[in-house]
Amino acid sequence: MSVMGQPPFDAVVATHHAEIHRYLLRTTARASEAEDLAQETFLRAYRAYRTLTPDANVRAWLFAIATNLTRNHFRAEGRRRRAHAEVRASRAAAVADGPEHAALYNEARARVEALVARLPLKQRLAFVLRRIHDLDYDTIARSLDCSSESARAHVFQALRKIRVSLDGRELPHQE
Amino acid sequence: MSRTPSQCLEIEPALAATATGDGDAAEAARVETHVRACAPCRAAFARYRDLGRAVAAWGRAPETPPDAARARLESRLANLRARTLLYRVFSSPLGDLLIARSEDGVSLVEYLAGRDLRHSRLLRAAGVEALEDGAEVEVLYRELLEYLEHKRTRLEWPLDLRLARSDFHRRVLEATAGIPYGAVMSYAGVACEIGKPAAVRAVAQALRWNPLPIVVPCHRVVGASGALTGYAGARVALKQRLLAVEGVPAVRGRDDYRIPRDAMYVRTPGSAEYCLPSCTWLERVEQPQRIVRFGSRASAEAAGLAPCTDCRPDLHPLARS
């Protein structure tokens, strides 16, 4: 069964699964949650795929579904806190344990990751969508049910918080 | 922080964006002018720039999902796909019709009372994921309309009998699917065809729950006396109409329609010929229940039958009632 105007759904999975999975890893920071949410994203997408218009941006659409699922997932505040506590614990352990993580480069990366995990959800989602996956602000705004200006403000607030948290610590220079 | 001048506060978003490579040209020019004159903001710019690089490094970190995650997704999708029936409700001369298909073939044709799906078998069937998709079933609908308008005598659709309730049910449907266009057989005949000659009532019950009316032509199965007896619940008039489309006459009796058995051509079991109902061959038939009757010579010949060389229906055609 093919849907006119859009590639078969198998091709959608092949093209986008890895990126959506990475996005969810970065926003949930837990492998099992990320995998579950990625699966749910594609199962939902499969159900709705045939209602998509031929000119729809499939990638942006998948990000919107994944974002929406993530928000539902974290909606319960207690759950969010628990998740964050675990993220911090697991990351700290990883940095302490792995000798490769001792490298300055990796340490900075791990620190960014830990700080991103501590951001409020909307800021975290907007930040990762913009800075890592390079989605435009209009798309981010639609995913987060907010204005384009708010999306921009979320990304800035995220950057500012990370910078403030890092102040006093040197970030290693690379490249 | 508390002593940051308002200008510095105001420009910080643009500064952060520019330093991390996310600003536009106008912003960049403004930031450059400001930074040249403001040492603290110059320092902030440098920190944002380093932060931007650390974020980019984090973004590049190869957290590729394991192949196993992809495989688990593929397997859930395959399962979902196999369970999916695409459907749409259409208007037809017979009323609202729901048509649903799977990847394997058409799986449900249902007479609906209005567009309300709440009582549809589609939603009650276990293990079925129903998705509305007109495009996938539109072509089936068009062919069905042509069939009802007598512009087509075959619906050559791959069938998916997943909504059959049992193996017995499936066999009844398969046997019924073999009754040619423009012909009728009795419930007892279908029972014989599947090797269960005593299961006449069970056959009738199975056809009452035919998930594919019209396509699996249960309207071509009638009572032994020729009475239409029943169709999709209490829709006997529809059965009469479908038979009329195919050239099988049915006359209205006191409380039922009845096909004129004596005014129809006959095929005996296993024969490649069709006979007049008066043919002497018929007296020697072993399983008379399995007789198939045709409303016209044309239908018999379209089913690949030749006129009997004894009774010569080609030379002595039945008078049309």
Describe the SSE topology.
The complex is a heterodimer of chains A (175) and B (321).
Chain A: H1 9-28, H2 31-48, H3 58-74, H4 77-97, H5 104-117, H6 121-132, H7 137-144, H8 148-166
Helix pairs in contact in A: 1-2, 1-3, 2-3, 3-6, 3-7, 4-5, 6-7, 6-8, 7-8
Chain B: H1 6-19, H2 25-37, H3 39-60, H4 67-83, E1 84-92, E2 95-101, E3 106-111, H5 121-124, E4 129-132, H6 134-148, H7 167-177, E5 183-186, H8 187-193, H9 200-208, E6 221-222, H10 236-245, E7 251-252, E8 257-258, E9 265-267, E10 273-274, E11 292-294, H11 297-302, E12 306-307
Parallel strand pairs in B: 1-4, 5-6, 10-12
Antiparallel strand pairs in B: 1-2, 2-3, 5-11, 7-8, 9-11
Helix pairs in contact in B: 1-2, 1-3, 2-3, 8-9
Brief account:
The complex is a heterodimer of chains A (175) and B (321). Chain A is mostly helical.
Describe this structure in words.
With 175 residues, chain A is an all-alpha fold. Chain A contains eight helices and no strands. Chain B has helices at residues 6-19, 25-37, 39-60, 67-83, 121-124, 134-148, 167-177, 187-193, 200-208, 236-245, 297-302; strands at residues 84-92, 95-101, 106-111, 129-132, 183-186, 221-222, 251-252, 257-258, 265-267, 273-274, 292-294, 306-307. The longest helix of chain B has 22 residues, at 39-60. Chain B is rod-shaped. Chains A and B meet through α1, α2, α5, α6 and α8 of A and α1, α3 and α4 of B.
